[in-house]
């Protein structure tokens, strides 16, 4: 003979608050450090420092391109600190840093790509760790009728 126990449904007052997972704390730390580093990297690009203009010219990038990269880095840094946007911001910074690493290796050399590759690695870890937020953001945008851009070949017809 089995005994059944009735349990009260969980409510906000009876549910337990779980402590954040250690990985979440480490991701927030990485996001904060990365945001600080991207502001530090992006701000000088907006100031049109002649030394930076010359370095970007060596890579085939105009002063306007350098300013654009600086704006993208600072916008990405801000996005890293906004919980709803963190995954998408990190993914965008990954894309930006793939370009930075590629241009640096092609035009300057592999050793000089160590810095951008480090930024790329940390941004990739954050993007992967926050991928659930990116999926939720895309789903929310789709529900709202504002579809995010699709990859070539994945566009819906009809």
Write the layout of secondary structure elements.
Blueprint: H1 22-46, H2 50-58, H3 63-80, H4 86-107, H5 114-129, H6 131-143
Helix pairs in contact: 1-3, 1-5, 3-4, 4-5
Q: List the uncertain runs.
A: none
End-to-end separation: 59 Å
Average of the residue pLDDT scores: 84
Estimated structural class: mainly alpha
Proportion of beta-strand residues: under 5%
Shape, per Cα inertia axes: globular
Could you estimate the helical fraction of the residues in percent?
Answer: 55-70%
Order of helices and strands: HHHHHH
Quickly count the helices.
6
- Beta strand count: 0
What summary fits the major beta sheet? none
Radius of gyration: 21 Å
Description:
It contains 6 helices and no strands. With about 160 residues, the chain is mostly helical. Helix 1 (about 20-45) runs antiparallel to helix 3 (about 65-80), helix 1 crosses helix 5 (about 115-130) and helix 3 (about 65-80) packs antiparallel against helix 4 (about 85-105). The longest helix is centred in the first third of the chain and has 25 residues, at about 20-45. The termini are far apart. The model has no long low-confidence stretch (mean pLDDT about 85).
